[in-house]
Recover the amino acids of this structure.
């Protein structure tokens, strides 16, 4: 009996069984090679244009409404830098003049002028950092916007506020619902 099972198992293992037919299926790619390279270059171009002239990357992305925001933010921070720089130099010059000639008729004390210099120097340097940060931010924004132009944003993705009623009381609360439809 034992030999019978061995013969049957060798017989079953030696038979080749095909459950499916081979088919030559050719899958065509929906993205053409040329379009792929255009997509890869566009964010780089937008970043480069924004680095050359602020707002030019936004114009390249055809988001013209962002250009006044870019120039408003950069202009405000540059104006703040200029204002603080002028005040710093004014108080520094008064400090030097009072230090050299104590009878010059300046109505401020040395400690007041020194603290005013520190104050305006601090905010001058801070406004320079803000200006540099806004400059980099508009470059990054142009690049991200160029990347996002090619993402799917159809109506299957939704984001909407939802009013949730409590099961245990009559209170209502506001929440956010995120739904995916496939």
């Amino acid at each position: 009996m034992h030999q019978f099972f061995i013969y049957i198992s060798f017989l079953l293992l030696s038979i080749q069984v095909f459950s499916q037919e081979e088919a030559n299926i050719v899958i065509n790619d929906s993205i053409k090679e040329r379009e792929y390279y255009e997509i890869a270059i566009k964010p780089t171009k937008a970043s480069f244009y924004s680095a050359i002239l602020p707002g030019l990357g936004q114009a390249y992305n055809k988001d013209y409404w962002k250009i006044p925001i870019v120039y408003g933010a950069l202009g405000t921070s540059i104006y703040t830098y200029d204002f603080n720089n002028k005040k710093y130099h004014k108080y520094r010059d008064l400090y030097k003049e009072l230090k050299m000639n104590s009878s010059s008729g300046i109505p401020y004390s040395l400690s007041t002028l020194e603290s005013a210099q520190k104050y305006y120097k601090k905010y001058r340097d801070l406004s320079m950092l803000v200006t540099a940060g806004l400059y980099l931010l508009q470059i990054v924004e142009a690049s991200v916007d160029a990347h996002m132009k090619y993402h799917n944003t159809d109506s299957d993705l939704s984001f909407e506020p939802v009013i949730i009623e409590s099961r245990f009381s009559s209170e209502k609360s506001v929440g956010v619902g995120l739904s995916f439809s496939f």
Remarks:
- The two ends are 57 Å apart (CA to CA).
- The chain has a mean pLDDT of 81.
- The chain is about 60% helix and 10% strand.
- The longest strand covers residues 157-165.
